[in-house]
Design a protein that fits this description.
7-stranded mixed sheet, alpha/beta, disordered N terminus
């Protein structure tokens, strides 16, 4: 199980040091179909989930406490019911709607995590870090801190949704792999390390990685490169590149970006930059309350 140095935390997060995602993408994800029963009695929230996630996209979303999911050594609690739909609306607007607008109605229906599980509390670790989300095998994504997402705050939104964007890239790669041979020619193998969390992002930027977690391995590097861009505005992406001092590092990042763009075009028939534009607009809509 890997730990993802998602962001250097700010504000409330500063007391925890680092925010993390636990990511395990070793199991290929195949087609999965839920048995959909139109006649099941559902409460209002469950009906909304059924109508907006399960029926159109074959994705379950759960929010009640389930000890079978583990976390025996943690003090966690389920989300307040009133916070579940706004969180899922936000994910749908920024992730599902962006991909659907860019690729058409069938991509997310055919390729997606099959379950979201929401937890209300922060997942605080013994080393004063927090885990924002977890994913195993691409089948289920667990999202923590559902009760604390600020739906009008850009950074709060990004912290929550980046988990989904990152893991979805892995799921796409499990279905249609990227060009690993070309990727391996960019950053030397010795630059990848299991001790990625010993380096800050700026240091990693200067050797050709968008974040320190991208230094974990080729798979994480690809997923981080793609999701990092999808969570940035055009202005922020331009400023990020301008801030890299090493010409070689900048060139390596741009080579990786070219491979990401080619992958989306050739394997998924998606204009990656158009997808990024849609994600930016949909994120702005969430900040403005239009979701």
């Amino acid at each position: 199980m890997k730990l993802y140095n998602f962001l250097k935390a700010a504000g409330l997060f500063s007391m925890f040091g680092m925010a993390l995602i636990s990511c395990d993408n070793d199991t290929d994800l195949g087609p999965s179909i839920f048995e959909i029963d139109e006649n099941v009695q559902r409460n209002e929230l469950d009906q909304w989930i059924y109508d907006n996630y399960t029926k159109p996209y074959n994705i379950a979303a759960t929010y009640k406490w389930n000890q079978a999911f583990g976390y025996y050594d943690k003090t966690l609690f389920p989300p307040r019911v009133e916070n579940v739909e706004p969180a899922l609306r936000m994910v749908k607007k920024i992730w599902i709607d962006s991909y659907t607008q860019a690729a058409g109605p069938n991509l997310v229906k055919e390729i997606a995590p099959r379950q979201f599980h929401l937890i209300g509390s922060y997942n605080v670790n013994d080393n004063n870090t927090i885990t924002l989300g977890e994913a195993g095998g691409g089948a289920r994504i667990t999202l923590f801190n559902t009760d604390y997402v600020k739906h009008d705050d850009l950074e709060s939104i990004r912290q929550f949704v980046h988990t989904v964007q990152h893991e979805y890239v892995h799921i796409l790669n499990q279905t249609k792999d990227f060009d690993r041979v070309s990727w391996a020619t960019i950053s030397q193998a010795g630059l990848y390390t299991s001790s990625w969390n010993s380096y800050d992002d700026v240091e990693s930027n200067e050797i050709g990685f968008v974040t320190s977690y991208a230094r974990s391995n080729y798979d994480e590097d690809f997923a981080e490169t793609a999701s990092f861009i999808l969570m940035k505005t055009k202005v922020e992406w331009t400023a990020f590149l301008a801030g890299i001092k090493s010409a070689n590092a900048k060139a390596d990042i741009l080579k990786k970006v070219d491979l990401v763009v080619s992958y989306y075009k050739e394997k998924l028939k998606i204009d990656f930059w158009a997808l990024r534009d849609l994600a930016e607009q949909n994120t702005n809509d969430v900040v403005d309350g239009n979701f």
